[in-house]
Amino acid sequence: MSAIGLYVAGTGPLHRVSAGPKLLGLLVVGVALVAAADPWVSLGALVASLLAYPLVGLHPRRALGVLRALWPFLLAIGAFQALFGAWEEGLRLCAQLASLVLLANAVTLTTRVREMLDLFERLARPLRHVGVNPDRVALVLALTVRSIPMVASAWRAAREGYRARGLSGRPHLLVVPVIVQLLRMADATGEALVARGIDEDTRVRVD
Amino acid sequence: MLRLAGVSHAYDGRTVLRDVTLDLAEHRIGVIGANGSGKSTLARTLNGLVLPDTGRVSLGEWDTRRHAKQVRRRVGFVFSDAANQIIMPTVAEDVEIGLRSLRLGREETARRVDEVLERYGLSDHRDHPGHLLSGGQKQLLALASVLVTGPEILVCDEPTTLLDLRNTRMVHRTLAGLDQRVVLFTHDLDLLPDFDRVLVMAEGRVAFDGAPDDAVSFYTKLMDQADGA
To answer: End-to-end distance of chain B based on CA atoms, in angstroms?
Structure first.
């Protein structure tokens, strides 16, 4: 299972708020944190984000899962800033990043993809005038979310095959089989979209 | 009625369908044949996923080349690997997305989704990620996602290939209970006895067309000959 969550059924306060206000809130917090540019404010936001999980009915292990996935990046950013800048700057950036990813994850966990699609479809509607198809924008976003576990499963399958042959180390050797698998999956998904009449404008295969 | 008239198709110079002419009107039609016999390509021509190089595939007044959208709305398609057919993150959303193009409105859409999830025993999984379901449940989800749009005909390309015996039986029971006409492409000969008609494909042609028992014995002899050659 990916560390990046998908919708979790629930009745907490965030579940009851629709997608628009939640994303707007996320935007406001993001802008405020960047504008404040203060390490202690960012650290406070991180603590608040962690505490928010149980308060909105999400298990704290979901927050810890996000931090577990993020820590290599946080370590790299923090170390770089400590070495070449100021440690306060490293602390600020790490706390900002972690708190915003935690909040974004909380939004994902409490919002059905269908609601997100409706919202993005509405937001993209004015772009019709410049040739953008809002349905397609929404579909691309849905497929992006769907592709996260697909990438994870392709990686897992390639790694198992590699180990089953008694090989170890050199993880770069997995890149090609993973890409090949993903291309096959993408082809099959495209075929399924056409077969289900979801993307009606898509051309059929003539090969 | 689905009609194929003089359908031929080749991939990279290799002919996989040769002048196939068929009327598919029966309620349950099975199609069997060895790997590479042209089954999957034939299945894909039926709802316009593959357009034949020559010939015509039509459903009533619509043909797949000029009226692909109309044909696809009436001819649903289920793939052998249901995982590839799951597009949306959760079960209910995956069933729902097929209805988007029908513009039914929120209430009717929700009603249809609830109904189909209930019918196929997926209600308890409605908010679960589709890719985490068992193999059999994934195939049921694939069926539900197609059937919710109300197709007249269901084309299934080896839907039980990746399933164990229990899940194969579950899918078989589901297909047997459908009101829709079914064209089942399969390697599983046990699924066929109650079918109305079975075709045997060989080298891109329909080598046999008749009752299930006769078709299975023809196919078995064909395989025996191939083994002896």
So the answer is: 39
pLDDT in tens, B67-103: 888 898 899 999 888 887 888 878 998 898 888 777 7
DSSP H/E element including B83 = helix B82-85
Cβ contacts of B86 on chain A, cutoff 8 Å? 146
- A-B Cβ pairs (cutoff 8 Å, strict): 97
Cβ pair B127:A7 closer than 8 A: yes
Q: Is B68 on the interface with A (CB under 8 A)?
A: yes
**Where do the domains of chain B lie, and which CATH numbers do they carry?**
2-228 (3.40.50.300)
The reply to whether ipTM tops 0.90 is no
* Nearest Cα residue in chain A from B66: A204
Q: What is the pLDDT of residues B141-191, one digit of tens each?
A: 999 999 998 899 999 999 888 888 888 888 888 888 899 999 999 999 988
